């Protein structure tokens, strides 16, 4: 993980062991879904270890050109994109761990016991101020989607995007035109918020939360006065139920997996690469190689990781570049480059125009308030 649009790494046990008081009505459904996915994983693992199932070579060449030819062949109709922090860095969102410039290196002003505390649910309930101060700096709406985001929108428009699974919380996929059904926001989203009280759980929209944050108010529930938190997954909280239920249906049907901008180190998200069929091609677009099998597990016969270089490699392709450059290169090979560049230009112009109108309206409202406040009431005439 490298970007503030993506929450910091969470341990798997933290994701499946919520605090007792936070158990929801969906907990049994979530546990059942998680249990089912674990069984699916074991079945796939034993199948791979025992050499069961087919492993047909679909790509004629393990290069970006080979992937492009496969997409253009018309045989590729259910693409799944798995994306992480790296797809948003060119939007200007700071990363977490870069020395001196990363998010964690600049949290001293919040007097945290340790940097990750800002995303700890226990700490948040007692000290919400640091999180909301940070949220004001990074709030959705201040950044524009990248070339990579719009490449996924093109996949949708061409009818070949099955789903986008994202670790990011910046909502830029939505801004680019991916809608609720197109997205699995594995680590949650700022798009909605809920009261943290188990007995209340009232929902609030993005505009309500934005008004509170930019007014420097700690968001409190209108109904019960408890804290209201954006629906992003903190340490100590479960991933959304929809993550577990959707992956069971989506990944067996996937005929091309495109992984972009993620180190594939955060579980259970990283394990999704092993849930496609053994024949499904997998393309990684990233600044470094990721998702490769652990050598020790490989010796024990446990496969599933990505294999770019060995003599047995037959489906995995690594495009080592920025996500934007990789998407442009693939779009060029597909004959879509001019269309993608025009889409990015039009959408950025539209967003800039919309932002300009909103700022103008806000200035007029502020001026009107200031004017009404400065007008003193006329004195009453003495009788």
Automatic annotation (TrEMBL):
It holds the Pfam family SIR2. Its cofactor is Zn(2+). Residues 57-337 form the Deacetylase sirtuin-type domain. CDD domains: SIRT1. InterPro entries: DHS-like_NAD/FAD-binding_dom (IPR029035), NAD-dep_sirtuin_deacylases (IPR050134), Sirtuin (IPR003000), Sirtuin_cat_small_dom_sf (IPR026591), Sirtuin_class_I (IPR017328), Ssirtuin_cat_dom (IPR026590). NAD(+) binds at residues 85-89, 95-97, 167-170, 262-263, 286-288, 323. Residues 347-367 have a biased composition (Basic and acidic residues). Binds 1 zinc ion per subunit. Its EC number is 2.3.1.286. One of its GO terms (biological process) is regulation of multicellular organismal process. Keywords: Metal-binding, NAD, Nucleus, Transferase, Zinc. It comes from the Eukaryota. One of its GO terms (cellular component) is nucleus. Residues 14-36 have a biased composition (Acidic residues). It catalyses: N(6)-acetyl-L-lysyl-[protein] + NAD(+) + H2O = 2''-O-acetyl-ADP-D-ribose + nicotinamide + L-lysyl-[protein]; N(6)-tetradecanoyl-L-lysyl-[protein] + NAD(+) + H2O = 2''-O-tetradecanoyl-ADP-D-ribose + nicotinamide + L-lysyl-[protein]; N(6)-hexadecanoyl-L-lysyl-[protein] + NAD(+) + H2O = 2''-O-hexadecanoyl-ADP-D-ribose + nicotinamide + L-lysyl-[protein]. GO terms for molecular function: histone deacetylase activity, NAD-dependent; NAD+ binding; NAD-dependent protein demyristoylase activity; NAD-dependent protein depalmitoylase activity; zinc ion binding. The active site is at residue 187. Residues 1-36, 347-383 are annotated as: Disordered. It is found in: Nucleus. Belongs to the sirtuin family. Class I subfamily. NAD-dependent protein deacetylase. This is NAD-dependent protein deacetylase.
